[in-house]
Amino acid sequence: MGNDRLADQTAPRQEIWTLRGHTGWVSYVAFSPDGATLASASYDHTIKLWDAHTLTERRTLWGEAGSVFVVKFSPDGSTLASGGEDSTVILWDAATGRQRQTLRRHEAAVSSLAFSPDGKRLASSSADRTVRLWDAATGSAERTLNGHTREVFCVDFSPDGKTLASSGMDATIRLWDAASGREERTLKGHDDGIITVAFSTDGRTLASGSMDGEIKLWDAATGRCFKTLKGHTAATDTVLYSPNGEMLASGSWDRTIKLWDAKSGAELCVLKGHTDKVQSIAFAPDGRRLASGSEDLSVKLWDMSEGLNLKEGLKMGNTQTRQQVSSGQGAGAQTPAMPDVNAETYPYETVQHLLDQTANFSMFAVPERHSPEELLLLPDAPQDWFGMNGGYGIVIRNSLQRFESFVQTPATDDLSVSQVVGEAAGSLRANWLFCSDECRWTPGQLPPPAIYDPWASQPFAMLDAVFSFGEGNSFRGYGTGRTFPLSVNGQPKLLAAAVGNVMEGAGKFRGREGTFVMTGSLTPELGFLGHISLRIYDPDGVLRSESELSGLTGIADPDPSSTFFVMRGEKKDRTVRTTFGPPPGGGRVSLITPSQFRAAQFNFTSRGGGGVRAETTVGPVVCKMDATVYFNLLAPSGTAAAPVPFSTDEVYRFVDGRGREVATLTAGVVEGISFDLRFPAAPGQKGVRFAGFGLITGGTGVLEGVQGILTVNSLIGIAPHALTLMHTLHLTDAEGRFRAGGSSIGGGGGGEHSAGGGGGHSAGGGGSSASSVESRAGGVESREADRPAQSRLSEDDPFYPLLQHAEDYTDMYLKWRRGFRKCSQELSATFADMFNRHLNVGDFPGLEIDAQALKGIFEHDIKPFDSDTFERYRGQAKGTFRTYELGTHREVAVADLYSHWRPETMRVNGRNAKKISGSFSGYFDPHNLPDLSQGKVDIIFNSYRGDVGLTSWVEIYQHQRQQRTSFAYKLPHRHEILWLVKDVSLGGQPIDNNVFMASHEWKGQHQGRTAYFMVAFFYDIDFDSCTARLSGDRYWRALYVEE
Amino acid sequence: MGAARGASGQLSVEALQALIDQTVSINAFVTSDRTQSGCAINARGNGGEIVGVRCRGQLNRFDIELELPSESGVKAASTLGERVGNVDLRWMVIPHSYAARSDREPPPTRLDTRYSQRVAMQEMTFSFGDGRDGFHSFGTGRTFPFASGSRPGAVVVSAVGNVTEGFGKFQGHAGNYTLCGELTPGGGFAGHIIARLVDERGDLRTRESLPSSGAGGERPDPDFTYLMWLAQKGKSAAQANRPSMTPDGQLRGMNIPMELKRGQFSFTAGGRDGFRSSAVRVGEVIGLEEGFGRGPQTAERQDGTALSPSLFEGVARYSFDDRGGRRLGAFTTNVLEGRRFDYRYASAPDEVSWRFGFFGPILYGSGCFRGVEGMFYGASNSFFKPPPGDHVITHCYFARLYDPQGKFRSASGGRRQ
Fold first, then answer.
1. In degrees rounded to 5, what are phi and psi of residue A859?
2. Does the global pTM surpass 0.90?
3. Which of A83, A190, A295, B176 lies at a 20 to 30 A Cα distance from B15?
4. Which three-class secondary structure state does DSSP give residue A351?
5. Strand ranges of the sheet holding A278-283, from the earlier edge strand across to the other edge
């Protein structure tokens, strides 16, 4: 039952208005000669007359019986003629809707009608293979034109009325002398039935559309076909010239309408919006509007004049799409004068800074384990079973978990997110009450109830929402949402999204403004499982952390079948201009804004001193986005009681590290709310905070065929138009196609903490597939088969102690990092100098280090997880280590080391982790190691955790038993890392000296093969004085080649 | 029968209950008639898209027996019995907002098995025995795609129909039915039908015992278990209906508690006597219904007639207890589509009786029904007066549960289907 409603949401929206009312396919549309009335005919046996200005239904006419296939106005507008399934032609009084006369001669369905230009004659075509001519005034039959050998589909008079054209299933067009009824010419050229034929306004050209999709243009005088227009991918059902003769419009079973240049035949524009076959189109007499009727039961109106310059539209990729007007605002509403949204009340950078004073929370909502039948919508009235959970609403009880979702650098074949759900940090209580499509934003009021229907797309109001984060920090919210039933891999999945406003805060939320938006799915137990983004405007920084927050502790993935791209958007810089697009009608305007999105970590916590607080770390640009935002510029400022609605059309273009587009995704907000925003520090500066959601409607590249939901949660300044956007692309992803390898822990068992316990590390962990994954790295394509997406580390795993060591060393890593931050100037200069002076030693050239960049890196926050670098090795690689004397650069030793990197990245204890082995005697799979006490192999455990970054722990068994640990800085080039390595006593204590090995590593090509290069020096570092002296008299360089 | 009247001249509750319990109940299962093929109705001139199905199904006797709920849970046995007749159907897919009527052909609407769609049972004729007895009917329903356990290419369908004209023994009998099963565009409908027909004259019922069910072969949906039970008003004050009011004092709907009871009925159509049914036997109380219902929510005119039945919807929880009153489990259902037809008994011309059918999903369960998946549907007869007036009713309830492990299937009694 909800299909139509769902279709409303999923349909690309380019029309300015949609007329609904027919319950069957709309077969024909026609404007009255004065343009005041639009008639539509339907398979539902009716003709509807619409006021073409107010777009309201005036009258419904019921025919004799059966479907109505055609309706036409007489040239003077007084008569309406219809024909259809019952074989009759009916003449109606267009003013009163009264039936005047029924013309009965055809022996099968009437397919088409045409009034002669003088209005005196009426031609009809029929499936009985005939064309009939009638006296339009008396209804008397004048003549029968025989010639077609199969059903006749269409008739049209030439503008001078002398010629009648007909077309049919016999793939011919026949031209008849309208006076005598003599057949003058037969035009052949189409390979299939010709559904439609139309004379140009000057009568010189005849256009025809066929079941094969082609449109042909014929010289009406000679009958020669001089052009074939190709573009429709299914039958062309209707062709029509614009009143000024400059354009040809065509409607097709491919659901589109195309506009063609009548002279050149060039395709000008495609109008998309119908969700089923287009059966008919009609230009308004003034040419300013086009109507279309479709098998999707709707009539759509398209604005051909209001700012729509077709050639401009073509240049802009038709991003100026149109919007269905909700209600109450007539199509004729005046478009306001457009303000300059780029004008600067305050400098752009100032406004951007103000907008960035936002506390951003990216949370994962996990349903609490209640029996659904224990929950009541009306807890104060337990005997009123209207309040049963699931009947007219759903009781939401969620734990709010920390969440990490970092978009990896896109590649052509790989677009993925490192996604981890962490520990609980808050809770959500709310009631979702389902309501009819007419329900509106009414905080504090129960909406008109509608029963929950899992198969329908239903709106709901979110009442009594309370977000709590402990220590009295909480807020009440109100919002609205909608369910979206989808079929994912042949299984039903009910997605749900909602948008809301912070209505009243307590504790740290007191007096604050904010918006939240959620997207996820409903579980079989009617719990909400999914992502929530919350943005609180926080000019005094109460909710923003000044220090780096700890990394989260991952839990078993509560929803392995969904992937969330949570990104931070902005304008690239002040030069990016926001422009107004063509007004969509209804008093609304459209703003076109190009922006770019970065991978980002929106970290938050409610633990430790200081209560709830959030921290945002921004990564590289991963996609560009063009958005058209539609809203009413003249609406009063949005308030909590009455926000201003908006909608959007958005195109996301994911780009690789070099800025090349690798995949696109289209989506649009269908339910958006916006609120006035003021900046205490910048009186007079206007702003808006807004949030909303809508369905993802398409994708290309690796995103082709994706399904899911877009949410937006944003703040903008207006004049200047600065942005800070927080968008989430929620993709249904049952196969984990968009998950960075191993980014999730375990499977199923929502809310269950695993923390690396239990299960063997070789198992896939259930849930996600073990599908093969292709990746492209450094120009070399590698295939990695059967990579488990999820792993665990059991206590009897030889790598388990290494994990524990890494855990124990957290404070030490942080201490060392603080030292490097403190001494960034000195150490960066010393390191860069030394490495750069040894670029040309040995068998490969070095890679220069930029001292200034390194200084910034030492000072900067820890870089977000970068799977591309973390997984730079895949499988086996042989390294040749050459040791040199400092000063002389004489090679004093050489050794080969065989390294084996497990391809999968595990997720344990909130870390992304990898097992590696190294041996001088050969390759050993870390999953199949010999007895370590034999001293044949060393084992290495590399891991990344948000608070300490990339670290490594090495257990050395070859030669002398040793331990070694490292932490690393990510340098600017791809796969470029600076490791700081420290020897550790077997008791776990760092060797009591200040010696670190600084190892510079990068990836490149050597003799045509992918190679990894390392150069290392030893330093004695004094963090008190910020000095670093070379230690020892040697250094080494290593060259690794993958095998 | 003569109906007992009280001092006010109105029929007593007992008399009204007896009237509605005269209703004949027909439990039948439709299997496809293998002699036919190609049920799909294709749209004319539209690339062969399917807009409906037209085919003949084989009507089989179908007996369901619910065990007395016990520690082992709530279980039922079902028996697919002998062929008792045919059902000829022409169903058309209809638009979401279309007001279907038996006297109007719906517009062609493409079947799309990805989405839940409405269907009009434009023609649905039941014929019993040698075909002389039966009825024509009309109704509407919905498809429910991707339901667990559905066969490939099939969608679950549930619908409510109304008898438009009886013939043979069924002439002059009003009635309605509800069905639930699977629809395949090529093979038509296969599933369960519960029909209830008013039988004041008693010419459809027999006091004689019916022959045992014959062998009807394999049911096409062996992974499903069918439960059947009745619901009637109990006598305690807690069983009184209570209005549900909005905060601003508007009537929102009605809270309607019921007692759940075991029940049994059967029919046959073979032999010299043709169609005949047993009376409904009402058994022990086995649980409680907590239900909320509300009436028409659309502007569409609804007068309770065959052409314009009244719509209703609601939510209810069905809790099942063992003999000691211990709660074994419960499930909650939403009735998405209910159709109510008004009827006046000849022996109670001053009272408006309601016949109705309904269906909707089972949302969730607890106890022995934890994790339950399936459809809930039924057909009922009642006399209703707003509180504090009397409510006399007998519901025939069914649950079609996805049960590949046989959790709800009796170990004995009835053939394993």
1. -85, -25
2. no
3. B176
4. helix
5. A17-19, A299-303, A289-294, A278-283
> What is the mean pLDDT of each successive set of 10 residues along chain B, which is 417 residues long?
54 92 95 74 72 93 96 95 94 85 85 91 95 96 88 90 96 97 89 97 90 82 96 95 92 96 93 89 97 75 78 96 96 96 92 95 96 97 90 97 95 48
On whether the CB atoms of residues A250 and A233 are closer than 8 A, the answer is: no
Q: Tell me which residue of A473, A476, A532, A538 sits closest to A512, measured CA to CA.
A: A538
Q: Are B379 and B43 in contact (CB under 8 A)?
A: no
pLDDT in tens, A171-219: 999 999 999 999 999 999 999 999 999 999 999 999 999 998 999 999 9
Cα–Cα dist A295/B108, whole Å: 10
Specify the residue for token string 């490594």. Answer: A952
Helix axes A824-836, A810-822, angle to 10 degrees: 80
Q: Which amino acid is at A37?
A: T
- Binning chain A into helix, strand and coil, the percentages to the nearest 5 are 10, 50, 45
Q: Write down the residue that tokens 């009958």 correspond to.
A: A223
Do B197 and B211 form a contact (C-beta atoms < 8 A)?
Answer: no
Q: What is the Cα–Cα distance from A213 to A219, expressed in whole angstroms?
A: 20
- Tell me the CA distances in angstroms from B71 to B366, B399, B413, one per residue in order: 14, 20, 18
Distance CA B382, CA B396 (A): 11
A contacts of B313 (beta carbons < 8 Å): 451
- Overall residue count recorded for chain A in this entry: 1043
Q: What does the buried/exposed string (b/e) look like for A443-461 if buried means 16 or more CB atoms within 10 Å of the residue's CB?
A: beebbbbbbbbbbbbbbbb
Running DSSP on this structure, what letter comes out for residue B3? P
pLDDT in tens, A455-510: 999 999 999 999 999 999 999 999 999 999 998 877 889 999 999 999 999 999 99
Say yes or no for a CB contact (<8 Å) between B364 and A373: yes
Q: Is B364 on the interface with A (CB under 8 A)?
A: yes
Cβ neighbours of residue A654 closer than 8 Å, sequence gap 6 or more: A410, A415, A622, A623, A661, A662, A663, A664, A665, A701, A703
Residues within 8 A of B (CB atoms), A 62-91 only: 66-67
Distance (Å, whole) CA A330 – CA A346:
36
Neighbours of A100 (CB within 10 A): 15
- B158 three-class SS: strand
C-alpha A26/C-alpha A58 separation (Å) is 17
Partners of A481 in the beta sheet? A460, A498
- Total length of chain B: 417
Interface predicted TM-score (ipTM)? 0.95
Q: Which of B169, B227, B232, B163 is nearest to B402 (CA)?
A: B227
**Most B-contacting residue of A373, A434, A464, A494 (CB-CB within 10 A), to test interface:** A373
CA distances from A969 to A86, A954, A1013, B40 (A): 80, 18, 16, 66
Q: Which residues 269-328 on chain A approach chain B with CB closer than 8 angstroms?
A: 276-277, 295, 297
Distance CA A307, CA A313 (A): 10
Q: Tell me whether residues B336 and A1 touch, CB distance under 8 A.
A: yes
Residues A261 and A532: their CA atoms lie apart, in Å, by 48
CB-CB contact of B396 with B263 (8 Å) = yes
* Phi/psi of residue A808, nearest 5 degrees: -65, -25
Contact predicate A54/A95, CB 8 Å = no
Buried b / exposed e over A669-704, threshold 16 CB at 10 Å, is bbbbbbbbbebeebeebbbbbbbbbbbbbbbbbbbe
Which of the 8 DSSP states describes residue B280? P
- Which segments of A217-256 does DSSP mark as H helices, in order? none
> Which residues of chain B make contact with A5, given a CB cutoff of 8 A?
96
Could you tell me whether strands A257-261 and A393-407 are parallel, antiparallel, or unpaired per DSSP bridges? unpaired
| C-alpha dihedral sign at A559, A560, A562, A566 | positive
Q: Are A814 and A919 in contact (CB under 8 A)?
A: no
Chain mean position to CA B360: 11
